[in-house]
Automatic annotation (TrEMBL), chain A:
This protein's GO CC annotations: plasma membrane
Protein name: ABC transporter permease
Residue span of region Disordered: 214-235
PROSITE patterns, alphabetized: ABC_TM1
Domain ABC transmembrane type-1: 24-203
Similarity annotation: Belongs to the binding-protein-dependent transport system permease family.
Native organism: Nocardioides turkmenicus
UniProtKB/TrEMBL annotation, chain B:
Organism of this sequence: Nocardioides turkmenicus
Transmembrane parts of this sequence: 20-41, 53-77, 155-172, 184-205
Name the record gives this protein: ABC transporter permease
Keywords assigned: Membrane, Transmembrane, Transmembrane helix, Transport
Location of this chain's protein in the cell: Cell membrane; Membrane
Any one cellular-component term (Gene Ontology): plasma membrane
Alphabetized InterPro entries for the sequence: ABC_transp_perm/SBD, MetI-like, MetI-like_sf
Pfam families: BPD_transp_1
Length: 235, 218
């Protein structure tokens, strides 16, 4: 039966280095590391471009070019240039995550009504205050939407870590393929899909907690607009 | 750089095969999804319950990692793991999830008074849909098509990890040769070039199909 591997309790042991709990933790580790670095790079740049309106063309074109890059190729290039290890895998995943975060931060900040920004300026707020206390809170649903999209892609693509000799859920896929154990492949694929959905739900919950009721319409009884999923990239 | 040319000189045939296969595997799913998304998008635009079901299903499909889907499909379809059909089905599902939404968005954005004017002029529903509603929704629909196409071109590379063809094979080749740069760089350049060409072609198509949008911009 193809679900044997998934349902075998021995594979769920907390201490086994080959068990699902350990592999899931590794997978989450690669994902969060890449997302944190990508956000640290892309969020300030997106905010600056969105606030000043300068360099918008560069942001849009960089975002599009990044989308066209196959992550597997970026990984191989990084492996060839840096050598085996966590660094090339993280580089490939960061390159994957930057375009959605940058594009949505820029677009979200840009979409804040001019009148709102003018009003903030009028009451004496400085430019950094306008950016951080007015534009970011209003753009937050869109920004978190971009983060959700980036995290989906990174979770999906973090399987390539196993191809580069590291751990994570990709191990089940590649080891299973190499040894023709389809039940192992199926188990890895199912756990990966469930993990991706769970992370997306967790971020959707975070969005509800973080976004001000005045922004998403909950306080006025309006129906909140649902975040639309951004385009899927490699992964 | 000279390595690149000598690699191309000795493996030109393989590279060309991979490129052609890549084009097929990336564009066939977009074409299928585009044709299917027009009636489905119309249904989603028209009926609210359908909208809810279709868009939720779409987001869930979107969440499933491509490599996972690629490996689960053989069990569902009864195909072999190496069958390119798995790639076509997987990418069609992803493209469909995206295109149904943008088609519905495009149709939603058509000004209802324009449709009333068309009805008043004697357009029957079917003809009105093809002659008025669809052309006016085209810019939004084609924007979705651009995104789906570029995403597919870069996603097909993943198929090489399972052993299916396409430019991704150049990456795995470089890997097997001990991170030999020429095939890796070649694969990256060809893949990005392909995505850009496909994108530009759709923009040209859009200009041809919607001449009025240029007139308005002037």
């Amino acid at each position: 039966m193809t679900l044997d591997y998934l349902l075998d309790a021995a594979n769920w042991s907390l201490t086994s280095p080959d068990g699902f709990p350990q592999r899931i933790l590794e997978h989450l580790g690669y994902t969060f590391l890449a997302l944190a670095i990508a956000t640290a790079i892309a969020f300030p740049i997106g905010l600056l471009i969105g606030h000043t309106g300068r360099g918008a063309l560069i942001a849009v074109n960089l975002g599009n070019a990044g989308r066209a890059l196959p992550t597997l190729g970026v990984l191989m290039l990084a492996l060839a240039l840096v050598g085996i290890g966590l660094v090339p895998v993280t580089i490939a995943l960061v390159v994957l995550a930057i375009p959605p975060v940058l594009a949505t931060t820029y677009a979200g900040v840009r979409a804040v009504a001019d009148a709102t920004v003018d009003a903030a300026r009028g009451v004496g707020m400085t430019e950094p205050q306008i950016a951080l206390r007015v534009e970011v809170p209003i753009a937050l649903p869109i920004i978190i939407g971009g983060l959700r999209n980036a995290s989906l892609q990174v979770v999906s693509t973090a399987t390539i870590a196993a191809y580069a000799g590291l751990g994570g859920l990709g191990r089940y896929l590649f080891d299973g393929l190499a040894t023709l154990q389809y039940d192992q492949v199926v188990a890895g694929a199912i756990v990966l899909a469930v993990l991706a959905v769970a992370i997306d739900l967790a971020l959707a919950g975070t969005q509800r907690l973080l976004v001000s009721p005045g922004v998403n319409g909950r306080s006025t009884g309006n129906r909140p607009t649902t975040a639309r999923p951004a385009p899927k990239l490699a992964g | 750089m000279s390595d690149l040319w000598s690699y191309l000189a000795t493996n030109g045939g393989d590279v060309l095969t991979a490129l052609v296969q890549h084009i097929w595997l990336a564009l066939l799913p977009v074409a299928i999804a585009f044709v299917l998304s027009l009636p489905l998008g119309a249904l989603v635009h028209r009926y609210v319950p359908v909208r809810h079901i279709a868009l939720t299903t779409g987001s869930v499909v979107y969440t499933v990692p491509s490599l996972a889907l690629l490996l689960l499909l053989p069990g569902i379809l009864g195909t072999s793991v190496l069958d390119p059909l798995n790639v076509v089905v997987a990418l069609t599902l992803y493209s469909l999830a995206l295109l149904v939404r943008t088609t519905a968005d495009g149709l939603d954005a058509v000004d209802p008074t324009v449709l009333q004017a068309a009805t008043a002029m004697g357009y029957r529903p079917v003809r009105r849909w093809f002659a008025v509603q669809l052309p006016l929704a085209m810019p939004v629909i084609l924007t979705g098509l651009r995104v789906a196409t570029v995403a597919n071109v870069s996603m097909v590379s993943i198929a090489a990890l399972v052993g299916i063809g396409g430019l991704g094979q150049l990456f795995t080749r470089g890997f097997q040769l001990g991170f030999y740069l020429p095939p890796i760089v070649l694969g990256l350049v060809l893949s990005v070039t392909l995505a850009v060409i496909a994108d530009v072609l759709i923009v040209v198509l859009q200009r041809g199909l919607t001449p009025w949008s240029r007139a308005g911009a002037r």
